[in-house]
Design goal:
Length: about 300
C-alpha cells in the first residue's frame, strides 16, 4: 500500500512539472515584441540568408516579433499572420512588454493614421492588430497594422497600463511644449543630457509626451536619445523613509529617502529578485522591491 501511494505521488509530481512547463512554454510562445525596420529588409521563409525572400519591407516599417521562435541572428516575425524570418541587425526593438493581440472579434473598427478620428483611415481590422503603447491621455492605443503604425480608440477591453522609457536630451535648450505642435507654448527647456520619463511613439511619430518632477509636455523625437533596455511603471512606497540607493545592495549609498505613499517609477525588469532600478525626482537609483507596491498599481 505504501509503495502504491509513493508511486502515485511520483506520478502527480511529474504531471505537475509537465503542466507548469507546458504553461510556461505556451505563455512564452505568445509573447511578442515590436520593432521598427532600420533599412529595407528582406523577409525570408527560414532563418538563413540562403532562404527564399518572401517580400521586402521598406525602412520605417513596423514589425511584430516572436522572440521565443527566433534563431541565431534572425527574428521570427509575423507577416500576414504567418511566421517568417528577418535579420535582427536591421530591426530596432522599441517594445518588449505589454504587446496585446487584438483580433477582429474584439475590435473590427477603423485604424487611424494619427490619434484623431479626423485623420486618414488606414483600414479596418479584419484579422489581428498588435497594441503596444497607450497615448498620454489614455484615449488611444498605438497598434501595428499591415507593417504600419496606426491608432485605435481605447475601448477599455484591454487592461493596459502606462509604460514609460527614460530619455535624454541631445541638445541644450530643447523646448518642451504644451501640445505636440511647433506653435504650442513652451513649458520649459531641457539641458543636454537631462533625463525624463516618456511615453514613446504613443502620440505620433514626431512627438512624445514626457514627465519630469516639475513639469510635463511634448518634445520632438529628433532631439532625444531613448533607453529601450528598461521599461518603467508608476509605483509607490509602502514604508516610511524608503532608502533610494546608488546600487542594488545594502552597501549602496543612500541618495535620499522616500516617504510612504510617494510615487516613483520602477523598472519592470528588476536587476535581481529583491532590487529594482527606479527613477525618483529625475534621479536614477535602486529600491528594495518588498517596500514598493506592485508594478502599475496606482
Amino acid at each position: 500500500m505504501v509503495k502504491l501511494i509513493k508511486k502515485y505521488l511520483r506520478f502527480l509530481i511529474k504531471l505537475t512539472i509537465f503542466l507548469v512547463s507546458w504553461l510556461f512554454i505556451n505563455q512564452e510562445a505568445h509573447a511578442q515584441w515590436i520593432g521598427v525596420v532600420q533599412e529595407n529588409l528582406r523577409i525570408r521563409s527560414a532563418p538563413s540568408l540562403e532562404s527564399r525572400t518572401l517580400r521586402v519591407l521598406p525602412k520605417g516599417s513596423y514589425i511584430v516579433i516572436t522572440p521565443s521562435l527566433s534563431q541565431d541572428n534572425f527574428y521570427a516575425v509575423y507577416i500576414s499572420d504567418k511566421i517568417a524570418y528577418a535579420y535582427s541587425k536591421y530591426i530596432n526593438v522599441i517594445q518588449k512588454s505589454q504587446v496585446h493581440a487584438i483580433n477582429s472579434d474584439i475590435y473590427s473598427g477603423p485604424i487611424y493614421s494619427y490619434p484623431s478620428s479626423d485623420s486618414v483611415v488606414l483600414g479596418y481590422n479584419k484579422g489581428t492588430v498588435y497594441a503596444y503603447a497607450l497615448s498620454y491621455d489614455s484615449k488611444w492605443l498605438a497598434v501595428v497594422y499591415n507593417d504600419k503604425n496606426g491608432y485605435v480608440l481605447n475601448n477599455k477591453t484591454i487592461n493596459y497600463g502606462h509604460t514609460y522609457y527614460r530619455i535624454e536630451s541631445k541638445v541644450n535648450g530643447l523646448r518642451v511644449r504644451a501640445s505636440p505642435s511647433l506653435k504650442a507654448p513652451v513649458v520649459s527647456n531641457m539641458k543636454k543630457g537631462q533625463g525624463a520619463l516618456a511615453l514613446p511613439l504613443a502620440f505620433n511619430r514626431d512627438w512624445i509626451f514626457i514627465l519630469t518632477p516639475s513639469y510635463s509636455g511634448f518634445v520632438h523625437v529628433g532631439f532625444i536619445d531613448f533607453d529601450y533596455t528598461l521599461t518603467y511603471k508608476p509605483v509607490f512606497a509602502i514604508v516610511d523613509r524608503l532608502n533610494f540607493r546608488s546600487s542594488p545592495s545594502l552597501d549602496g549609498q543612500i541618495i535620499c529617502q522616500i516617504n510612504n505613499g510617494e510615487i516613483l517609477f520602477a523598472a519592470a525588469e528588476s536587476t535581481s529578485n529583491k532590487w529594482a532600478k527606479a527613477v525618483y525626482k529625475g534621479k536614477i537609483g535602486y529600491v528594495y522591491t518588498d517596500y514598493i507596491s506592485a508594478y502599475g498599481n496606482l
